[in-house]
Specification:
Elements: H1 2-16, H2 24-31, H3 37-72, H4 84-97, H5 107-125, H6 134-158, H7 160-170, H8 179-206, H9 210-215, H10 220-242, H11 248-260, H12 264-289, H13 297-314
Helix pairs in contact: 1-3, 1-12, 3-8, 3-10, 3-11, 3-12, 4-5, 4-6, 4-7, 4-10, 5-10, 6-7, 8-10, 11-12, 11-13
């Protein structure tokens, strides 16, 4: 209940505060029924779309992080740290290089890149000595992320047009996204939700071990494939909307487990409000810190997430989920 209240407060703050001339008084007046054309334009055409994009992005990344951590049984597994988001971003970068524009990007390209990133993560967990060591898995993911980001930077050096179009997007932002872009991601988000509903109970069994899951009549291989597909759909859609945002999939499940325990079903339920609340709050802060300019959203999420990562790593024992 507290998490949903925090989300409601974050949404209200997102509509009331911004980097422009429309302050809380004007915004609140419009919400109360006053007809101010300038305030209406700012709230309905600028702040409301980025609020909704923030809600969808935060939900997708928070849930994807929880799924990935449970699947790998690693609390450090996070789409932004393990190369899933970087794979998605690199696919989008290649699409722009080949002639696409940011307005015409489809989530399919981003999701294919995320799917490739997921496959590499699962392959890393099957390697001897890597999957059993959370820190080594993160280091492997960081290497992959660095490689893909370097290749994306190389693309921007080759094509100046691509660099101009992707430079702001790659740092992470929910600003300037159209309703058409948001609607393009909804079918895949809904499909991911249906997959999660179908697989959450078997996944909870798999978290106890493959033998336990098989003893209960589940098929670990099919569970993994379903979770990988759901993560790819969620991360790909979120990356297409807001760019590669790191640490969201780490912080949100970490906080959710702190309140609800290790059960994936309770964790996912808490991720539903906590993920959007984190993104929406971070976006509001990004507008206010350097007003009238805006700080990239990815910088804010990194500032929030880096200390959480250090806390987990410096703990005496990193728990295996």
């Amino acid at each position: 209940m507290i998490a949903w209240l925090l989300l409601a407060i974050a949404c209200l703050m997102s509509l009331l505060f911004g980097a422009g001339s429309i302050g809380p008084d004007s915004a609140l007046g419009l919400l109360m029924g006053n007809d101010d054309p300038e305030a209406r334009f700012v709230i309905m055409e600028l702040r409301l779309p980025r609020l909704v994009v923030g809600l969808v992005t935060g939900l997708a990344l928070g849930v994807a992080g929880a799924l990935l951590q449970t699947l790998t049984r690693n609390p450090l597994a996070e789409p932004g740290l393990l190369g899933v988001s970087a794979g998605s971003a690199f696919a989008v970068t290649l699409a722009i290089l080949l002639g696409a524009t940011t307005a015409s990007l489809t989530t399919l390209i981003s999701q294919l890149g995320a799917l490739a990133g997921c496959a590499l993560v699962i392959a890393a967990t099957r390697m001897q000595g890597v999957g059993q060591d959370p820190v080594r898995l993160v280091l492997a993911g960081a290497t992959l992320t660095g490689l893909l980001l370097s290749l994306s930077s190389l693309v921007m050096l080759i094509d100046q047009r691509a660099a101009d179009e992707i430079r702001f997007w790659v740092t992470g932002s929910v600003a300037g996204r159209s309703w058409d872009q948001l609607l393009a991601t909804l079918p895949s988000m809904i499909l991911a939700g249906l997959i999660i509903v179908a697989v959450v109970r078997p996944l909870a069994s798999l978290a106890l071990g493959e033998k336990v899951a098989m003893g209960l009549g589940h098929h670990p291989g099919l569970i993994r494939l379903a979770v990988i597909l759901a993560v790819a759909l969620l991360v790909g859609g979120a990356t297409a909307l807001a760019g590669p945002l790191a640490f969201v999939g780490l912080v949100v499940p970490f906080v959710a487990r702190g309140f609800g325990g290790a059960d994936i079903r309770k964790t996912l339920w808490l991720c539903l409000p906590l993920g959007p609340a984190l993104i929406v709050s971070a976006d509001t802060v990004s507008r206010l810190l350097v007003a009238p300019s805006e700080m990239p959203l990815g910088v804010i999420t990194a500032i929030i997430g880096a200390p959480v990562l250090m806390i987990i790593i410096r703990s005496r024992r990193i728990p295996t989920l």
